Amino acid sequence: MRIVFVNNFARGLGGGEQQLLLVMSGLQRRGLEIDLITSPNSELAHEAQCSGVNVVEANLAFHKSLSAVRLIKYVCDDTTDFVVGSGYWTNLLVGIVSLPFTTKRIALHQSMPDSVTRQPERSIRGLASRFSRVRFHGHIAISNAVKAGLLAEGIPEEIIKVIYNGVDEPHESLPTPLRKNPVIGFLGRLEIVKGCDTFLRVLASVKKKHPTVQGRVAGDGSQRKHLENLRTKLGLHDTCHFVGPQNAYKFLANIDILLMPSRSEAFGLVAVEAQRVGVAVVAFDTGGISETLLSKKTTRLVHPGDISEMISTLTSLVDTLPQLKDALAENAETALNSFLPEESVEHYYDYFQKRCSNSS
């Protein structure tokens, strides 16, 4: 069986790209032939090549759409069983390209259908949705929340399959001691959708009651300069540090509470990672985050966008954190046995095997 994945994430590795790497390498280990069409000189291209995936590097930007369509058609010859888009734009490209009759189009949805708010992305999303209803043979959603969004767009339930992300396990034991002065952390891309601006505002308010709390921000993105200026404006320059891209587990092992003020979140990979190392989580109840939180004792959900509620919830958690040591350890054990990478890959393998068998 041959599967061609298409992805155009050019900068760094987001959660979706980490999952894509996990799935491609796992399927390849099971004997499937895997190809990836992706942006040139991207981190995804490099990591995929290192794992043995055959990579075709191409500029898939909007202004190169015609050449991108021609390339996909060239790569997806009559030996290709499936071609898989992995985002709004790549799903659109996969939807419009002319393919051999035996090749099935699959859309992998790694973000919430309603997460796009600006033009021209909204128009691209609309076109991709239209093609999804008539041109795709199947849809993979990474959470039930994503599935609900696809149903709302008119995609038939019988062609939607929910497969949770597999989350890489820590390579070493990383117990998180509770510190006398709690550290509140943010881990993610420094983009508007992830809500780091809200993190800073919440931290500034919580410090009024708990002056000794510290803040730490891991990640990078287009909003970094703006966020550093906001940190100074809020008087957090000496107590909240931007540490850049970090190994997720090592960063999380050095904080006490993870704050997730995402405006849209299809899954919430970092929430799983935080729980595995015994870190408490406070998050906006958006998208699929609630599906990744495994304990009501050590995790808290806040109504989306309600900053006042997030401030009061975080303040309360800081107050009670010393009493949660045993509950955090128990939840870490549960999280270590949930969302396992091999289970996720096995679900993908079964998915493609069944659809390949049905076509024969």
Explained architecture:
- The protein has helices at residues 15-29, 43-50, 65-75, 88-96, 121-135, 144-152, 196-209, 224-233, 248-252, 269-276, 307-320, 325-336, 341-358; strands spanning 2-6, 33-38, 54-57, 82-85, 104-109, 138-141, 160-162, 183-187, 214-218, 240-244, 257-260, 280-284, 299-302.
- α2 links the parallel β2 and β3 (54-57).
- The longest helix is centred in the last third of the chain and has 18 residues, at 341-358.
- The protein folds into 2 domains: 2-166 and 340-358, Glycogen Phosphorylase B (Rossmann fold, 3-Layer(aba) Sandwich); 183-336, Rossmann fold.
- The strands form 2 sheets. It has a 7-stranded parallel sheet.
- It starts with a strand and ends with a helix.
- The chain is elongated, with a radius of gyration of 21 Å.
- α1 (15-29) packs across α13 (341-358) and α10 packs across α12 (325-336).
- It is of the alpha/beta class and 360 residues long.
Number of helices: 13
Low-confidence stretches: none
Strand order, main sheet: write it out: 3-2-1-4-5-6-7
Structural class designation: alpha/beta
> Which descriptor suits the 3D outline?
elongated
Strand element count: 13
Give the averaged pLDDT, no decimals: 90
Order of helices and strands: EHEHEHEHEHEHEEHEHEHEHEEHHH
Helix content: 40-55%
Radius of gyration: 21 Å
CATH superfamily of the largest domain: Glycogen Phosphorylase B
Distance N to C terminus = 12 Å
Beta-strand share of residues: 15-25%
Q: Label the CATH architecture of the largest domain.
A: 3-Layer(aba) Sandwich
Q: State the CATH class of the largest domain.
A: Alpha Beta
Biggest sheet, in brief?
Answer: 7 strands, parallel
Q: What is the fold-level CATH name, i.e. the topology of the largest domain?
A: Rossmann fold
Count of the domains: 2
